[in-house]
């Protein structure tokens, strides 16, 4: 397979190869793909978590356990400030 990469990527690749820190361009691309796969896994996990959190929140609202938006924001802000000393 032949691919073309933008000049900025080519320069970055050359700089890293010239530094001697990486043995080959294949090694660099392998590391990049590993990071991309990790990022994709984390994205899927975050979406699943958010979907669950939304389901929980919707169920609470349907049971009448919800709070007014302004009140909820004020409480969340107070908890944040308490945790982070702000």
Describe the structure.
With 86 residues, the protein is mostly helical. The chain has one domain. It is 78% helix and 0% strand. The protein is built from three helices and no strands. The chain is elongated and about 60 Å long.
Summary, kept brief:
With 86 residues, the chain is an all-alpha fold. The chain has three helices and no strands.
Q: Report the order of strands and helices.
A: HHH
Helix count from the secondary structure assignment: 3
Let me know the largest β-sheet: none
Which stretches are low in confidence, meaning pLDDT under 50 for 5 or more residues running? none
What fraction of the residues are assigned to beta strands by DSSP? under 5%
Q: How many domains make up the coordinates? A: 1
Radius of gyration: 23 Å
- The shape is elongated
DSSP helix fraction: over 70%
Structural class: mainly alpha
| E-strand count | 0
- Whole-number average pLDDT? 94
The N- and C-terminal alpha carbons lie at a distance of 54 Å
Features of this protein?
3 helices; single chain; 86 residues; mainly alpha
Give the topology, please:
Elements: H1 7-19, H2 25-62, H3 69-84
């Amino acid at each position: 397979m032949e691919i073309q990469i933008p000049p900025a990527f080519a320069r970055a690749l050359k700089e890293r190869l010239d530094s001697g820190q990486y043995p080959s361009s294949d090694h660099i691309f392998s590391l990049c793909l590993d990071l991309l796969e990790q990022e994709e896994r984390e994205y899927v996990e975050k979406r699943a978590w958010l979907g669950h959190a939304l389901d929980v929140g919707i169920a609470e609202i349907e049971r009448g356990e919800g709070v007014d938006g302004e009140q909820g924001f004020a409480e969340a802000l107070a908890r944040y400030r308490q945790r982070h000393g702000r």
